[in-house]
Design brief:
The complex is a heterodimer of chains A (250) and B (580). With 250 residues, chain A is an alpha+beta fold. Chain A folds into 2 domains: 100 residues, Beta-grasp domain (Ubiquitin-like (UB roll)), CATH 3.10.20; 129 residues, Alpha-helical ferredoxin (Fumarate Reductase Iron-sulfur Protein, Chain B, domain 2, Orthogonal Bundle), CATH 1.10.1060. Helix content of chain A is 30%, strand content 13%. In chain A, the strands form 2 sheets. Chain A has a 5-stranded mixed beta sheet with strand order 2-1-5-3-4, with helices on one face. With 580 residues, chain B is of the alpha/beta class. Chain B is 34% helix and 21% strand. Chain B contains 16 helices and 20 strands. In chain B, strands 1, 2, 6, 7, 8, 9, 16 and 17 form an 8-stranded mixed beta sheet that branches. Chain B has a 4-stranded antiparallel beta sheet with strand order 11-14-13-12. In chain B, strands 3-5-4 form a 3-stranded antiparallel beta sheet. In chain B, helix 1 runs parallel beside helix 4, helix 5 crosses helix 15 and helix 14 runs antiparallel to helix 15. The N and C termini of chain B lie far apart (60 Å). The chains are: A alpha+beta (250), B alpha/beta (580). At the A-B interface, helix 1, helix 2 and helix 3 of A face helix 3, helix 4, helix 10 and helix 15 of B.
Chain lengths: 250, 580
């Protein structure tokens, strides 16, 4: 069948501003939007710039705005989309070409939350123990593929580009809730900052946008609660006491 | 056209590719020297992230296990083509690297006692083949994702320098030594020349030479092809693994962990056909055997509805196991097939998955200039682009993740240790000349063919003649076809002349790499007149140890591919018949 797709184009070497171009291309109902973009690139316009790699929703390269919502092009099927399918780059970051945005600021925010396990103890000879219940607490946020769909769907981020954004907070959550991590103190500053979690207004756009089904707004809420508990506690940082489940029964 | 701007850098070591092998090497080397990681993708986009089922290590957390059993399984799985000293090193160190990953924060699934949980996987057994064993350490069905994320996190912590979205164009190799590399900066179109004492290639596989593949669009064998063009041989290219359970039509992987959890394969009649092919391990037989079994079922008319697929049956596992241990798989199947695996059968077909072949290396990941014994000073390779060889003629599931972390680490260490006593290599007079020329040839012609059309034909030829089953006449036909595609490639014209993010140019470069690697694959496959592991010749259906218990080495000489061979290193397990 023939379908119609409208793509926002911008060539920094030729265009002063982005503009729309519509294409009519052959496609199957079960095709991904990514397949359609490839058809445009391979049969109509070799210059159409977009990122992609794995093609099945794991690498996080091809987040973009599809019919007004942030989605991965490789996880949206033609059959479920109204035509013409409109495709634009994620909002809030500088467009470098067509559907590609500059991700530098995104990864700076990621780094700002210190997205790595922090611990003072020397590791044991074998694995650190962690009960399935303790593991479950941060399971959801380990799914994050850093695609940027949540952050660039967030009105608070659109309003203030300094906001850490949901993706970075999801990363912080992944470590704050990990029973092995001892970095809550070091992360608290950036999270509690004026550009930190309190800019979140619980709009749920991030949760809707997440292609991995992460409960992003809930995760941000968990981090807010942790920060409140820390500041309310008279006996120093209670971040560890906040964690559910004791040590493993063994 | 005007030459591109050239930017120069100097680092002690440069690593190309930011998947598991590259990041592990970067972590190790950057403890002691100045390292840059050059990757055509943002590191977290690397294909390691799509590995699902687990990383094999004999932790013995849930039942008795030993690295010797792991070694035996790997050697037998390789159809006795793996080098056993390399396999021994890998299986011994697997245990330690899994603990290392846990210490770095990797969120493994846990046993009730809080230890790393383990599950069954194809070809992994206890007591040298008696029964399946739970050896695969896993994090749901996103183990590779967690390994990639964890290693990248550690690189951030260690402040490793990254050059993201830089595409490898050339290696600077002169007088048996590597002096660095040239890469294209995608954002600007500039050429970047990296002067380095050593370079480690970790550029992954090249499954995109096939039409149906689990591999990312970007898996085009850049490191292998560039080294090949610079005279480095490629080892065991005829061995390419087809994973039995790709999502029908798309080739997206459904982890072997799905069968490790109890899933079974059924033909069009609903029969559990693996009973006839592997009576002991059944659906957990190695991948080459299951892929062949599926092809044979389909050929004999027992595909589903007369089509070229069979079913993976997960229904009896129940919702909790499927959603809890295979959540991504359930999501893929629902998204791309509209099938609910809790209630319905999943259509699957073999999908091109993994290159056992690649750049020959020592156990310290040093690339061998002659393929046999002489290291090319300053050049390393690890992971799928390398051939140590730990996978021989067929890789076992979970062993690719073991390979990348063990040999990535070994390579990184060796690089850092060797640097102290190394002088700076002399740079060639015009280091960027070849890269300028390569790009110039693609972007100068006023008109010519598009890379997309040639790529589609390449993928069809490889699928038709160089996939699960091969036959002499078909391979000859493939070589004829490849020769004509290679001629046509000389006349490819990239229409887009943009400097910034020129994706058309990038894809044309990648096609050139794929064409060279496909050529080496087909030449090596035609020469090997036996069936071993993933290389299955219908005209030579038996393994032939007397003549073919040897590694192939394909080299480029004056626009022909020349083959040489070298013996397999056998230490503990002499070849036996391979039954499961």
């Amino acid at each position: 069948m023939e379908i119609r797709i409208k793509i926002q184009r911008f060539d920094p070497e030729r265009d002063e501003a982005p503009h729309w171009r519509q294409y009519q291309v052959g496609a199957q109902p079960m095709d991904r939007v990514l397949d359609v973009l490839h058809t445009v690139r391979w049969q109509h316009d070799g210059g159409l710039a977009f990122r992609r790699s794995c093609g099945h929703g794991i690498c996080g390269s091809d987040a973009m705005e599809i019919n007004g919502r942030n989605r991965l092009a490789c996880k949206e099927l033609v059959k479920s989309l109204r035509q013409p399918i409109t495709v634009a780059p994620m909002r809030g970051f500088r467009v470098v070409k067509d559907l590609m945005v500059d991700m530098t600021a995104f990864f700076e925010k990621y780094r700002a939350v210190r997205p790595y396990l922090m611990t003072d103890d020397a590791p044991p000879e074998k694995e650190r123990l962690q009960s399935p219940e303790q593991r479950e607490r941060y399971d959801d946020t380990t799914k994050c593929i850093l695609c940027g769909a949540c952050t660039t769907a967030c009105p608070s981020f659109w309003a203030n580009g300094k906001f850490l954004g949901p993706a970075a907070i999801v990363q912080a959550h992944r470590f704050l809730m990990d029973s092995r991590d001892q970095g809550a103190e070091q992360r608290a500053g950036v999270l509690n900052d004026a550009s930190g979690v309190w800019r979140c207004r619980t709009i749920f756009n991030c949760t809707d946008a997440c292609p991995r089904g992460i409960q992003v707004t809930k995760a941000i809420g968990d981090v807010k609660k942790l920060l409140v508990a820390r500041s309310a506690s008279p006996d120093g940082p209670p971040a560890r006491a906040q964690r559910a489940g004791g040590p493993p029964s063994a | 056209m005007a030459p591109r701007t050239v930017v120069r850098h100097q680092f002690d070591a440069v690593i190309v590719g930011a998947g598991g092998a590259g990041l592990m090497a970067a972590l190790e080397a950057s403890k002691r020297c100045r390292v840059a990681v050059v990757s055509k993708l943002y590191p977290t986009r690397s294909h390691t992230g799509t590995a699902q089922g687990g990383i094999g290590a004999a932790l013995a957390n849930v039942e008795p296990d030993s690295w010797e059993w792991h070694m035996f399984d790997t050697v037998k799985g390789s159809d006795y083509l793996a080098d056993q000293d390399a396999v021994e090193a890998m299986c011994r160190e697997a245990v330690e690297v899994v603990y290392d990953l846990e210490h770095m924060g990797l969120p493994f699934n846990r046993t009730p006692e809080g230890k790393i949980d383990q599950r069954r996987f194809g070809g992994h057994t206890k007591e040298f083949g008696k029964a399946p064993v739970r050896r695969s350490c896993y994090a749901a069905d996103r183990t590779g994702h967690m390994i990639l994320q964890t290693l990248y996190q550690q690189c951030i912590k260690q402040q490793v320098t990254f050059f993201d979205e830089y595409h490898l164009l050339d290696l600077l190799i002169e007088h048996g030594r590597c002096a660095g590399l040239v890469a294209l900066c995608l954002a600007t179109g500039e050429l970047h020349v990296f002067h380095a004492k050593s370079v480690l290639l970790a550029t992954g596989g090249f499954g995109r030479m096939f039409k149906v593949t689990s591999n990312a669009y970007t898996l085009t064998g850049d490191g292998c092809a560039v080294a090949f063009r610079r005279g480095v041989p490629l080892q065991d290219m005829e061995f390419f693994q087809f994973h039995p359970t790709g999502i029908y039509g798309l080739g997206i992987l459904v982890t072997e962990g799905a069968r490790g959890e109890g899933g079974v394969l059924r033909n069009g009649r609903g029969e559990r056909f693996m009973e006839r092919y592997a009576p002991t391990l059944l659906d957990l037989a190695p991948r080459d055997m299951i892929s062949r079994a599926i092809y044979l079922e389909i050929r004999d008319g027992r595909g589903v509805d007369g089509k070229d697929y069979v079913h993976l049956d997960l229904r009896h596992l129940g919702r909790d196991v499927i959603e809890g241990k295979l959540p991504d798989i359930a999501d893929f199947v629902r998204t791309y097939l509209g099938v609910d695996p809790v209630k319905e059968l999943v259509p699957v077909q073999p999908t091109a998955h993994y290159a056992m072949g690649g750049l020959p290396t020592t156990l310290e990941a040093q690339v061998l200039a002659d393929g046999v014994s002489r290291p090319l000073i300053g050049l390393y390779a690890a992971g799928e682009c390398a051939c140590v060889s730990v996978h021989g003629a067929n890789r076992l599931g979970t062993n690719s993740l073991v390979d990348i972390v063990v040999f990535g680490r070994r390579g990184g260490r060796h690089m850092a240790n060797a640097l102290a006593s190394m002088d700076w290599p002399t740079m060639p007079a015009a280091p960027e000349a070849r890269a300028q020329d390569l790009i110039g040839r693609l972007t100068s012609p006023a008109s010519g063919e598009s890379a997309a059309q040639i790529r589609a034909e390449l993928q069809q030829i490889m699928m038709d003649h160089v996939s699960v089953f091969r036959v002499g006449d078909g391979l000859k036909e493939a070589l004829g076809g490849l020769s004509s595609l290679r001629s046509r490639y000389q006349h490819v014209a990239v229409r887009d002349r943009a400097l910034q993010f020129n994706v058309e140019l990038e894809e044309a470069l990648e096609l050139g790499y794929l064409l060279d690697l496909a050529w080496a694959t087909a030449v090596a496959a035609l020469a090997r007149t036996e069936s071993r592991g993933a290389h299955s010749r219908e005209d030579f259906p038996k393994r032939d140890d007397a003549n073919w218990l040897k590694h192939s080495l394909a080299s480029l000489h004056d626009d022909t591919v020349a083959l040489a061979y070298k013996p397999v290193r056998i230490t503990k397990f002499p070849p036996k018949e391979r039954t499961y």
